[in-house]
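seq/struct pair 1
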Amino acid sequence: MPWWHFALLGAGGGLAIEALAIFHCCCAWQAARRTRSSRLRTNPPLLSTYLDVPAHACLALIRGLFGATTSLLFGTSGQIDGAVAAVALGVAAPAVLAQLGRALPGFAQAAEGASTAPDPAPDRRVSNTPPTGGGQ
């Protein structure tokens, strides 16, 4: 699959998550417009009360970029292969990037520690004998 397929499919996955968030806002708005007997209220709330268009537009852009970038990186490096994996990675991109962000400082510290590590600890043997003592 060409690199740009990964980017487009990943962006689509990221946008799908924002579309789901917009769907939930619209469902809440629809429920608020109705009475308990499902009749339309005389003074229903405005859609803008439930849907923050500038925030959703900004998040859609960010989620699309996260999805495209993550799928592109994983796809071109051979970590994933196929359309379903690219879309799924686009959906999960914020969580994947957050997890990588937490892991990368640990990798850097491990690499530094390997070059400046002190002598290993003395050999500690584990006994296979059961512990002695009271109890049962």
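seq/struct pair 2
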Amino acid sequence: MIIFLLKSFSVVLLVFGLNYIAQKFGPKISGIISGLPTGSFITLLFFAIEFGTSYVKDTALYNIHGLFAALGFSIGYYISTFYKGRFEIIFCIFLSFIFYLILVFIISYIPVHIIFTPICVYILLLICAIYYAKKEQYCIVEQDKATFLDLILRTILTIFIFVFISILPNYLPVNLAGVFSSFPTVLLPVLIIVHFNHSNLQARTLVQNTPFGLTCVVVYSFLVYITYPLYGVFIGTLLSWIGSILMMLIQIRVFRYFKLL
């Protein structure tokens, strides 16, 4: 029960924090931050607490592998935002899930490699980040504050998604549990909130900027793979976060130099 409460509190705090950032600083910044290893950090951390560091070592590379599917989710949502009509949010969610599940099915047959998998995923995410950086960005338009019912529904959705992902190791082999651990657990609720409260344009801006942050997940999960067995959960998590943040700072400087950010 304590583990469940910790999971719920952690992921809800992240989602509402990112939603606040989107309101305060715009969906571009929120998209970049939601691409950071927030979801993977919580998922892999609780995998380690519940199933041990050796299990996380096995799943960490598959977590990187799963970023192919996470990117597919973002691309599917981005494409679907060009449709504007009745049930547009439902259509966006449906199409993004189709993209995600198709890619999960494909990559589940492709073995991971300690060197080539991180490099290939990183390069693909970087290409997408450069492509999206040249696209138009849309700011948040002020809206009325969320009602109590809105907050309750968001909280339930957030907890449901994360708890579902976190119990998969009980029912799936390590490769599939690892792939699903990179599901955009934190991004999806934030995306729905922004889309519902604002428009498809702000939601599009949010997903445009997630590949930039997802590159840091590659670094984070790779460092988890290396550090958890050597230094344990606490030190391994700290070193992995330091490495991913350093990567983010380097990328920001490079993108600003080439006027992409």
